[in-house]
Protein backbone atom coordinates (compact mmCIF):
# COMPACT_ATOMS: atom_id res chain seq x y z
CA UNK A 1 0.00 0.00 0.00
CA UNK A 2 1.28 3.48 -0.86
CA UNK A 3 1.65 6.32 1.61
CA UNK A 4 -1.62 8.30 1.49
CA UNK A 5 0.19 11.48 2.51
CA UNK A 6 2.60 11.42 -0.47
CA UNK A 7 1.92 13.58 -3.52
CA UNK A 8 0.88 11.79 -6.72
CA UNK A 9 3.50 11.51 -9.48
CA UNK A 10 1.76 13.18 -12.47
CA UNK A 11 3.71 14.05 -15.62
CA UNK A 12 4.59 17.75 -15.95
CA UNK A 13 2.22 19.97 -17.95
CA UNK A 14 3.13 20.33 -21.66
CA UNK A 15 4.45 23.87 -21.27
CA UNK A 16 6.98 22.62 -18.71
CA UNK A 17 8.22 19.73 -20.88
CA UNK A 18 11.30 20.27 -23.00
CA UNK A 19 10.70 20.60 -26.74
CA UNK A 20 12.61 17.39 -27.50
CA UNK A 21 10.08 15.41 -25.43
CA UNK A 22 7.16 17.10 -27.16
CA UNK A 23 8.79 16.36 -30.54
CA UNK A 24 9.13 12.67 -29.60
CA UNK A 25 5.45 12.57 -28.60
CA UNK A 26 4.34 14.29 -31.82
CA UNK A 27 6.39 11.93 -34.00
CA UNK A 28 4.94 8.92 -32.15
CA UNK A 29 1.42 10.31 -32.75
CA UNK A 30 2.33 10.59 -36.45
CA UNK A 31 3.62 6.97 -36.39
CA UNK A 32 7.10 7.97 -37.58
CA UNK A 33 9.01 5.73 -35.13
CA UNK A 34 11.24 8.38 -33.48
CA UNK A 35 14.45 7.54 -31.71
CA UNK A 36 17.21 9.59 -30.08
CA UNK A 37 20.53 9.23 -31.88
CA UNK A 38 23.99 9.46 -30.32
CA UNK A 39 24.18 13.24 -31.02
CA UNK A 40 20.95 13.85 -29.08
CA UNK A 41 18.94 14.52 -32.23
CA UNK A 42 15.60 12.84 -32.78
CA UNK A 43 15.83 10.46 -35.74
CA UNK A 44 12.71 9.24 -37.56
CA UNK A 45 11.47 7.95 -40.91
CA UNK A 46 9.00 9.60 -43.27
CA UNK A 47 8.12 8.01 -46.62
CA UNK A 48 11.18 5.75 -46.43
CA UNK A 49 13.52 8.71 -45.84
CA UNK A 50 15.55 9.11 -42.65
CA UNK A 51 15.16 12.58 -41.18
CA UNK A 52 16.22 14.28 -37.94
CA UNK A 53 15.08 16.97 -35.54
CA UNK A 54 17.58 19.05 -33.61
CA UNK A 55 16.27 21.22 -30.79
CA UNK A 56 18.12 24.40 -29.86
CA UNK A 57 16.87 25.77 -26.56
CA UNK A 58 16.72 29.52 -26.04
CA UNK A 59 15.72 31.71 -23.14
CA UNK A 60 12.34 32.80 -24.53
CA UNK A 61 11.64 30.21 -27.24
CA UNK A 62 13.20 27.15 -28.85
CA UNK A 63 14.24 26.43 -32.43
CA UNK A 64 13.23 23.13 -34.03
CA UNK A 65 15.41 22.18 -36.98
CA UNK A 66 14.01 19.38 -39.16
CA UNK A 67 16.70 18.15 -41.55
CA UNK A 68 17.91 15.32 -43.72
CA UNK A 69 21.07 14.50 -45.62
CA UNK A 70 21.48 12.21 -48.59
CA UNK A 71 24.54 10.84 -50.36
CA UNK A 72 24.40 12.18 -53.91
CA UNK A 73 24.13 9.23 -56.29
CA UNK A 74 26.80 8.66 -58.94
CA UNK A 75 24.03 8.71 -61.55
CA UNK A 76 23.49 12.45 -60.96
CA UNK A 77 25.62 15.03 -62.79
CA UNK A 78 29.00 15.62 -61.16
CA UNK A 79 29.12 19.31 -62.10
CA UNK A 80 29.19 21.10 -58.72
CA UNK A 81 27.77 24.30 -60.22
CA UNK A 82 24.69 22.41 -61.43
CA UNK A 83 24.30 20.78 -58.01
CA UNK A 84 24.64 24.11 -56.21
CA UNK A 85 22.26 25.79 -58.66
CA UNK A 86 19.73 23.12 -57.64
CA UNK A 87 20.30 24.05 -53.99
CA UNK A 88 19.93 27.73 -54.81
CA UNK A 89 16.58 27.05 -56.50
CA UNK A 90 15.35 25.27 -53.37
CA UNK A 91 16.53 27.99 -50.99
CA UNK A 92 15.08 30.78 -53.14
CA UNK A 93 11.87 29.03 -54.16
CA UNK A 94 10.74 26.88 -51.26
CA UNK A 95 9.98 29.42 -48.58
CA UNK A 96 11.33 27.73 -45.44
CA UNK A 97 13.85 25.19 -46.80
CA UNK A 98 17.61 25.76 -46.81
CA UNK A 99 19.67 23.58 -49.13
CA UNK A 100 23.39 22.93 -49.42
CA UNK A 101 26.04 20.43 -50.44
CA UNK A 102 28.53 19.13 -47.85
CA UNK A 103 31.08 16.38 -48.48
CA UNK A 104 29.08 14.88 -51.35
CA UNK A 105 25.79 15.03 -49.43
CA UNK A 106 22.68 17.06 -50.17
CA UNK A 107 21.53 18.69 -46.92
CA UNK A 108 18.02 20.11 -46.58
CA UNK A 109 16.75 21.85 -43.43
CA UNK A 110 13.71 23.71 -42.13
CA UNK A 111 14.09 25.78 -38.96
CA UNK A 112 11.03 26.94 -37.05
CA UNK A 113 10.49 28.85 -33.82
CA UNK A 114 8.44 26.92 -31.26
CA UNK A 115 6.99 28.69 -28.23
CA UNK A 116 7.37 27.06 -24.82
CA UNK A 117 3.68 26.15 -24.54
CA UNK A 118 3.27 25.23 -28.23
CA UNK A 119 2.78 21.67 -29.43
CA UNK A 120 5.17 21.06 -32.38
CA UNK A 121 3.07 18.49 -34.28
CA UNK A 122 1.71 20.85 -36.97
CA UNK A 123 5.10 22.45 -37.56
CA UNK A 124 6.73 19.02 -37.77
CA UNK A 125 4.24 17.96 -40.44
CA UNK A 126 4.92 21.14 -42.42
CA UNK A 127 8.70 20.77 -42.09
CA UNK A 128 8.72 17.11 -43.11
CA UNK A 129 6.46 17.79 -46.10
CA UNK A 130 8.62 20.68 -47.30
CA UNK A 131 11.85 18.69 -46.94
CA UNK A 132 10.50 15.73 -48.94
CA UNK A 133 9.09 18.06 -51.60
CA UNK A 134 12.43 19.91 -51.83
CA UNK A 135 14.32 16.60 -52.16
CA UNK A 136 12.22 15.64 -55.18
CA UNK A 137 12.51 19.12 -56.69
CA UNK A 138 16.30 19.18 -56.29
CA UNK A 139 16.73 15.85 -58.10
CA UNK A 140 14.40 16.88 -60.91
CA UNK A 141 16.10 20.27 -61.37
CA UNK A 142 19.65 18.93 -61.32
CA UNK A 143 18.89 16.29 -63.94
CA UNK A 144 16.92 18.71 -66.13
CA UNK A 145 19.57 21.46 -65.94
CA UNK A 146 22.33 19.03 -66.82
CA UNK A 147 20.41 17.79 -69.85
CA UNK A 148 19.55 21.34 -70.95
CA UNK A 149 23.22 22.39 -70.72
CA UNK A 150 24.09 19.47 -73.00
CA UNK A 151 21.53 20.77 -75.52
CA UNK A 152 19.15 17.87 -74.79
CA UNK A 153 15.46 17.92 -73.94
CA UNK A 154 15.28 18.33 -70.13
CA UNK A 155 12.66 15.53 -69.88
CA UNK A 156 9.80 16.01 -67.50
CA UNK A 157 9.32 13.33 -64.85
CA UNK A 158 6.71 10.66 -65.50
CA UNK A 159 3.23 11.68 -64.41
CA UNK A 160 3.94 15.44 -64.58
CA UNK A 161 0.70 17.38 -65.09
CA UNK A 162 -0.04 18.55 -68.63
CA UNK A 163 1.38 22.00 -69.28
CA UNK A 164 4.28 21.50 -66.84
CA UNK A 165 7.47 23.19 -68.01
CA UNK A 166 11.04 22.77 -66.84
CA UNK A 167 12.69 26.08 -65.94
CA UNK A 168 13.36 28.94 -65.98
CA UNK A 169 15.09 28.36 -62.68
CA UNK A 170 15.52 30.91 -59.95
CA UNK A 171 19.29 30.34 -59.96
CA UNK A 172 19.39 31.52 -63.58
CA UNK A 173 16.84 34.30 -63.13
CA UNK A 174 13.92 35.39 -65.23
CA UNK A 175 16.10 36.17 -68.26
CA UNK A 176 17.09 32.51 -68.62
CA UNK A 177 20.21 30.84 -69.98
CA UNK A 178 20.50 33.20 -72.95
CA UNK A 179 21.10 36.04 -70.49
CA UNK A 180 24.08 34.19 -69.08
CA UNK A 181 25.60 33.86 -72.55
CA UNK A 182 25.01 37.57 -73.27
CA UNK A 183 26.41 38.74 -69.90
CA UNK A 184 29.33 41.24 -69.96
CA UNK A 185 32.81 39.73 -69.65
CA UNK A 186 33.38 41.51 -66.33
CA UNK A 187 30.86 39.15 -64.70
CA UNK A 188 28.29 41.86 -64.00
CA UNK A 189 24.73 41.61 -65.26
CA UNK A 190 24.93 44.96 -67.02
CA UNK A 191 22.73 46.73 -64.44
CA UNK A 192 23.87 49.48 -62.10
CA UNK A 193 24.03 49.03 -58.33
CA UNK A 194 25.50 46.82 -55.67
CA UNK A 195 24.35 43.41 -54.55
Write the layout of secondary structure elements.
Layout: H1 19-29, E1 35-36, E2 42-46, E3 49-57, E4 61-71, H2 80-93, E5 97-102, E6 105-115, H3 121-149, H4 176-181
Antiparallel strand pairs: 1-2, 2-3, 3-4, 4-6, 5-6
Walkthrough of the structure:
With 195 residues, this protein is an alpha+beta fold. The protein is 31% helix and 23% strand. The chain has four helices and six strands. The protein has helices spanning 19-29, 80-93, 121-149, 176-181; strands spanning 35-36, 42-46, 49-57, 61-71, 97-102, 105-115. Helix 2 (80-93) crosses helix 3 (121-149). The protein is elongated and about 55 Å long.
Helix content: 25-40%
Q: Low-confidence parts, pLDDT < 50 over ≥5 residues?
A: 174-195
Number of strands: 6
Q: Work out the helix count.
A: 4
Radius of gyration from CA coordinates: 22 Å
Amino acid sequence: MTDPTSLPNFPPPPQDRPLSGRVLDALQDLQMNPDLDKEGDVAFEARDQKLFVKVVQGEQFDIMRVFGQWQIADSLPEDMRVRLDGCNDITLGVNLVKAGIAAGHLVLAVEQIVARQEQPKAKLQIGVGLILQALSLWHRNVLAKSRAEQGLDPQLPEGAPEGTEVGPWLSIGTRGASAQQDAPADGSDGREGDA
